[in-house]
Amino acid sequence: MPNLRSFHLHYLSFAINYADKEPLNFFSLSKIVTLQLLVHCLLTRCIFQHKFCLGPLERLNVEVVDWVDREHLSELMVEYIKQKPVEEGIEAWADYLFVKTASNLESGVTTPLLKDGNPTGYHDLDDNVDCVRAMSSKRWQRGSRPAEAAGSDSSVSSGDMVWKHLESEAGNSIKYRTCSWQKTAALLFSEYICLAVMSFPYSYSVLGLVPGLILTILVAGIVLYTSFILWQFCLRHPEVRDVCDIGQYLFWDSKIAWYLTAVMFLLNNTFIQGLHCLVGAKYLNIMTNHGACTIIFVAATAIISFICSLPRTFNTLSNLASLAALFTFISVTLATIFAIIEPHPTGYTPDPGVGGGEPIVLPWPAPGTTFVAAMGAFLNISYTFIGQVTLPSFIAEMKNPKEFNKSLYAVTIAEIIVFSIMGSVIYACTGNQYMTSPAFDSLSDSVYRKVSFSFMVPTLIFLGVLYASVSARFIFFRLFDGTHHKGNHTVVGWLSWGAILAATWVIAFVIAEVIPFFSDLLSIMSSLFDSFFGFIFWGIAYLRMRREDYGSGFYRNRGWRGWLGLIANLLIIGIGFYFLGPGTYASVESVILKYREGNFGSAFSCADNSL
């Protein structure tokens, strides 16, 4: 044991020397701590056999990461070292870490490879560097329960890859893997709880209140489940940076699959940017009573969004995301309260003979509801929940990706509560006769409408910003991977980042203005893309993971759980193809009907597009 303690001290002194012998204060210690944490985990890996069940090791890594919070550890280190000679303080700190290591090892991993107090075969402390490198390159043997292993089909565990990323970013001025699960949850809140939530009352009016609420909970559960599959897949493949990498993995490492996924990925994101340019113009038209040409408002929204999308890390964007999510909640709450307190909705007439009368609320679909109308209402609900396309990018920038499930639980619970209550209350107050989408237009008082819609502005801007950042990151990382421009403040790096963002916003602006039926085209694109990004990919990912864990007959080998998983994920794949087929048909049919009714304008039109 004394030699192991010396081993720890040896690497701690190396970390301090590496830190250029900076003064031991709170700020310089942050630099030292990064290296010390790596040393701590490497030591833990070195003193065990090459063959053991991966499950306990993964649990150990989770424990290590949980208590190794960089800022908290810096404070602890200061407490150990201050008011002591430097050498004694460092020795006390090493003792603390060693005791903590020993307590963590009680998780079940046993049989240390020790000989005379040293790891077997490595009597020279310096040789342990080679030991670590050699062990890191080996594929860990799995035990009798491979399903417990987070990295059963990856040559490098997720914990190793996280530390590798942290080590590679140690000297960079821009660090990407910095998001906590709380900040990731803020990004998810801003992505999911957005303007689209105001379409739920309309969907409930078409589907009926009971089917609408059931579908809300059902879709939320399916998206949560598929997001968990996505998360598990990312843990197995920590080198994944975005959904395009996943597309390549799922389809037999095909580069063609990567390119096709990349095209869908970029088109999906750019169309969402364009939609938010139009929605921003719609808000400006409302507030100014169409005070200028709509093209100017669309361009202004694109420019503001471009400026807001300049931050290069999700950690920075999460601050804006928290603000956007808060204002969205206020907007939805105000709209609900206003719908309750105002005497009548927009368009109210007391004569029921002309489609008026008191608001009618139906538990089931109204007689004569068409398939196209019902499918459109269902797609409105589904598209609000479907957002898995960004999740791999978020996970890739988390300090501890194993905590991503906390973010998922938080946002899913909030979605179900907000969507169900707001949708039901506004529908009950407005009724089938007067319902509009978004529901802001159902408020008869223009002041109520403007006030509640105004609190939605941060989300109108931020959601487009978020998708622009995801697209720019996808391109930027591949252009500058392995260069110092990626992780540092360089002229080339910032000019390139800005140019990529500018290009995405210019394209989004042009598409939004050129296509007169843009909103309906977005529904078509969503049917085509979300069928894969929301369902098909993750059903296939589950089947691939279980096959790698248990063989081709995994559903037989795992008993009822295997059969249940097989049926559930085949059903998810089937839902994806339903979106792809009937969903696309309903969206195209909607465009045809609106063309016949003359509801489409012209390209680059100055016409008022307000509510």
TrEMBL record:
Pfam family membership, one: Aa_trans
Domain Amino acid transporter transmembrane as annotated: residue spans: 178-549
GO molecular function ontology, one term from the record: L-amino acid transmembrane transporter activity
One Gene Ontology cellular component: membrane
Keyword Transmembrane recorded: yes
Alphabetic keyword roster: Membrane, Transmembrane, Transmembrane helix
Lineage: superkingdom: Eukaryota
Membrane disposition: Multi-pass membrane protein
InterPro entries, sorted: AA_transpt_TM (IPR013057)
Family the entry assigns: Belongs to the amino acid/polyamine transporter 2 family.
Protein name: Amino acid transporter transmembrane domain-containing protein
Source species: Emergomyces pasteurianus Ep9510
